[in-house]
Structures are given as structure tokens and as C-alpha cells.
Amino acid sequence: MNPPDQETSLEQRARRRIKDSHALGGDPGRLAQFYRGWASSYDLDVGRNGYWGPMIVAELAAAVQTAYLARHRAATAILDAGCGTGLVGAELESLGFRVIDGFDLSEDMVEKARQTRVYRHVQGAIDLNRLPSEYFNASYDITVCCGVFTLGHVGPDGLRDLARVTRPNGFVIASIRKSYAEATSFDGQVRHLQEQGVLIPAQCLRNGRYAADEDAHYWVFQVPEKESVPTDERP
Ligand SMILES: C[S@@+](CC[C@H](N)C(=O)[O-])C[C@H]1O[C@@H](n2cnc3c(N)ncnc32)[C@H](O)[C@@H]1O
């Protein structure tokens, strides 16, 4: 196989992987197994096709920190939810963040993230939909989530737990693939969460560059001072 042919077949394989990842039905077992097989080539595959999500999410976190947070950037506590191999952590670190924690469902993806050495703590086998209680005491200044609100992964309700791990007046920043936004009526879900006092939408960059196959919306939410719905009354 000559190099251009080889390049084309690698690009095709990468595109197929990305497409296959959208058909996992949100099942934690299937997701973990799928990412076990993808961890070693994930960075190359997404890079091959162009992946701007991590840079944009990190730059939004930097802008939010400068605009709204009293705490110095190097002391701002950030949680990278669904950190994967650590692409967002690397971007955050290059922008001056130093207190970066991460978690992911996939142990294998997290092992890659650990190797970047940009995370303070990074933990695998953590399901965003079933977070251990220690996360709810953590009170991060900013929680970022890139590439997770995507078809076959996590439903919009995952935003509730991102709000719970973030301190009052802190921020949640998430990329939302366009196809996912349409399939889940994401704007309606956001209105619902706002009505319930879970999150306040602060900004949205619509139709931003995300990956070669599709754009995304980038949402910035603020966590209200006091949630109006008591924990035990939440669905
Ligand atoms: C497309 S990758 C994005 C990884 C990284 N944030 C990035 O932008 O490169 C999606 C990640 O979400 C993780 N994931 C999927 N469902 C999850 C869940 N329920 N809880 C935690 N992580 C999950 C996967 O293991 C995978 O690492």
C-alpha cells in the first residue's frame, strides 16, 4: 500500500470509529468496552479528522475565569468530566490552569490522561450518571465536559450532576454536538433545567467548529446560588 492509500484508509478507519461510537446507546458496559479498544489510537484518529472541541472548551474556561472568577487561574479548581485521554486537560494546562481533576468511564482512556501528567487527580471507572458521593463535596469552580454530550453517550440529564459537583456561582461548560442537540431537543432540556433552578444558561456559541464531520454548540452555564429543588425531590 503506498502512503496516500494508507493515509486514506487510516482516515476512513478513524471516521468509522467516530461513527460507531455514536451507536452505543448510552450503555456503560458497551461504552467502556468500545473505548478500551479505541484508547491507544483515539488521539491520532480524532486529530486525523480535525478535533477543535478541546481547544474551544478550554478557551471558554479561560475566558470565564478571567471575566468572572476572583480566584487566580492557577488556583481555579477545574473538573474535566469524561476526560478521555486528556486532550482538554492538556489545553487547560497550556492556558495556565494548574488544579485540574478528571474522571471517565473508561480506565483505558484515563490511563492515557494520567500519562499527560497535567491532572492533579484522574479517576477511571466513574460513570457520570452514578457519581460517587465524594464528587458532590468537591465544589469545583468550573466543570468542563467535551465530547460526552454526543449520540450514544450521556443524556442531557447528565448536566444535573455536573451542576452538583460545581460550587454555587461556578460554571459548567459543555460541547453539544449538533445532531445530539436536535435528537435530544437540547434547548428544551436546558429550559427545563433552568425552570428547576439547576443551571442558568449564561452563553452559547452556536454552530462552532468542533470536528470535521460536524459542528457543535458550546454552552456555558452558571450554577445558581441555591438550588431551588431539594436533592431528594429531583427525578
Ligand atoms: C468522545 S470521547 C471525549 C473525550 C475527551 N473529553 C475529549 O474531548 O477528547 C467521550 C468520552 O466520554 C466517556 N464517557 C462516555 N459515557 C460516560 C459516562 N456515562 N460517564 C463518564 N464518562 C463517559 C468515554 O469513556 C470517552 O472517554
TrEMBL record:
| Gene3D superfamilies, per the entry | Vaccinia Virus protein VP39
Span list, region Disordered = 1-24
List the biased-composition ranges (Polar residues).
Answer: 1-11
**An example Gene Ontology biological process:** methylation
Q: What class of enzyme is it?
A: transferase
Q: Name one GO molecular function term.
A: methyltransferase activity
Going by the UniProt record, its keywords in alphabetical order are: Methyltransferase, Transferase
EC assignment: the record states 2.1.-.-
* Matching SUPFAM superfamilies: S-adenosyl-L-methionine-dependent methyltransferases
InterPro entries tied to this protein? Methyltransf_25, SAM-dependent_MTases_sf
UniProt keyword Transferase present:
yes
Residues of the Methyltransferase domain: 78-170
Name the Pfam families on file: Methyltransf_25 (PF13649)
Taxonomic superkingdom: Bacteria
The region annotated as signal peptide is none
What is this protein's name?
Class I SAM-dependent methyltransferase
Which organism does this record belong to? Mesorhizobium captivum
